[in-house]
Specification:
Elements (H helix, E strand, L loop, with lengths): L4 E5 L3 H7 L3 H5 L4 E6 L2 H11 L2 E4 L8 H18 L3 E5 L1 H13 L4 E6 L9 H17 L2 E4 L2 H9 L31 H10 L7 E6 L8 H14 L3 E6 L11 H9 L3 E3 L7 H5 L3 E4 L8 H8 L4 E4 L4 H4 L6 E4 L4 H13 L1 H19 L1 H13 L3
Helix pairs in contact: 4-5, 5-6, 9-10, 9-14, 12-15
Amino acid sequence: MEKQKLIRITTVPLSLDKLLSGQLRFMSAHYEVIAVAAEKEYLEKIGAKEKVRTFHLEMSRKITPLADLLAVIRLYFFLRNEKPFLVHSHTPKAGIVGMLAAKWAGVPHRLHTVAGLPLLEAKGFKRKLLDFVEKVTYACATKVYPNSIGLKDIIIQNNYSYPGKLKVIAQGSSNGIDTAFFNPDLFSDEQNQLLREKWGLTRKHFVFIFVGRLVKDKGINEMVEAFQEVHKTHDKARLLLVGDYEQDLDPLSPKTLEAIEHNMAIVAVGFQYDVRPFFAIANALVFPSYREGFPNVVMQAGAMNLPCIVSDINGCNEIILEGVNGTIIPVKNTAAIVEKMNCFVEKTAYHKLLQSNARKMIITRYDQHVVWEAILDEYHLLK
């Protein structure tokens, strides 16, 4: 029997690679999967890795109305030719382009996953424009999947869609977490020691780690300021930053950039394809983001046995239970970050208690195959 076609769309292939890793290959056992994204060369690598077809569609994460319209038209003709059973989009730009083109092309099932709402930090005309785009995306979709309960509530509060169209799959997350891959037991003491030495760290240091884009919206300005305050009284504290800057889209303050460059206790290693070795030499994750959908980084850190300091936002406050596998702080609150960092360094028994629960809390709730099967079950409900 010929398989029905499933088209998965993200704005850039990095999202297919990092946010949906392994899922396309899993779905290809049940559907003929086609991956759509920008950056042709990278996209083709993902296609080979996941063993699925690809279609290159140039898109940008920036506001580019004319280019976006051209992308919608090109995708429309592709969909008319392919006649897929369903189109499933992720990320804001891929959402509006994918859902519009799919609706115009008469695709019967148009699904959109919401993994975060960048527009929540926008103001003025830009916010109004992004609100409008979000509403159009959801109107064109036949089903919308917020990847956390908190995100679903925000969508309803902002009247982006009516509740009947919304559903959180499983306990949240777009892809779950591969707990066999994110496992601290895969890294030996010797490997960890070599990496520490490379970056000027020792076993005596208490290493706070951040993994992700080094941008304002991730709370980096507050985190760096807080860490510098903590380091004044705790010389053994270190801050390990794993990720790239996006100064054109969401710049950090000059003060923060200067601190990262000149404070020897702050170690910035840039983007790393495999972040696990860095989790393996850290003691705790700090993730003071302003907004998220359902952050993979917090699940990854937990699976690597790290307790987490996270901001009180949707997703984060669902993965982390206060005093169980981490602690939750107010958004944009430097003093709260200072307090919790100090607590982790000073109260060894408290830190170890949280650490003892970190991995098992992820395994029982967010293992990858649980999420994949739940998404597949959702597809099978479509007629």
